[in-house]
Amino acid sequence: MIKVLIADDHHVVRRGLLFFLKTQNDIQVIGEAKNGKEAVELTAELQPDIVLMDLMMPVMDGIQATKQIKESYPQVEVLILTSFSDRDHVIPAIEAGAAGYQLKDIEPDELVTCIRQIMRGENTIHPHATTHLMKIRSQKEVPPHILNPLTPRELDVLVELTKGKRNREIASSLFVSEKTVKTHISNIFPKLFVQDRTQAVLYAVKYGLTESSGD
C-alpha cells in the first residue's frame, strides 16, 4: 500500500481527495493536515510514503513544510498539489525537495498515476511548471557534465526524462530495451551528482541540456 498524507487547508479539497483515493486498492490515506505545521507533525507521527501538499496554507506554508519534511525524513516524498503555476511558487517548491508539482485541475486518474510514478522514483512535473524551470541558469560554477560528459545516448535518455516519461515510454521512443534505459539512468545520476529523477530534470533544465537534443 502507498501511504498518503493529505495537507490542504480547505476541507472540501481534503474530502474530495480522500473520497477518490479510497477507491484505489493500492493507496491508503493515513491522515489529513489543515496546514504546513500539522503536515510536518503528522509526517513524523505517521511516516507516510507521500505527502500531497498544498502551497498556500495558514501557520506554515507548503514550501516551508516541504523543506522541513525533506530535511528530517528524506525518504518521504512530497507531491505539490496547488492552483499556482508561477515561477515564484514552482522554483522554491522544487528546490525545497518536492518530487512532483501538479495543479489542482488535474484529472483524478492522472493524480493517481502521478502518485504511483513518484513511488517508482519517477518525476512528475506539470508542463507549466517545467516552463519556469527551463529558465533557470547558473554561470557560477563549472557544471559536472562538462568535466564528466554524458554519452549521446545518456543525453537522449535525460532529455526524455525531462518530458516526464516513464522507463517503458523512453525505451519505446529510443527503440531500446527498458533494461538499457535503467542502465543509462543509473550511469547518469552519479555523473551529474544527483540522486533521483527530479534532481536530474532540474539539472537538465538548469544547464540547458534539453536544448542539446534534436527536438
UniProtKB/TrEMBL annotation:
Domain Response regulatory intervals: 3-119
Source organism superkingdom: Bacteria
Positions carrying 4-aspartylphosphate: D54
Alphabetical list of InterPro entries matching this protein: CheY-like_superfamily, NreC/VraR/RcsB-like_REC, Sig_transdc_resp-reg_C-effctor, Sig_transdc_resp-reg_receiver, Tscrpt_reg_LuxR_C, WalR-like
Key words of the record: DNA-binding, Phosphoprotein, Transcription, Transcription regulation
Coiled coil: none
Domain HTH luxR-type: 143-208
Record-linked CDD domains: LuxR_C_like, REC_NarL-like
Pfam families per the UniProt record, alphabetical: GerE, Response_reg
Protein known as: Response regulator
Organism of derivation: Sporosarcina koreensis
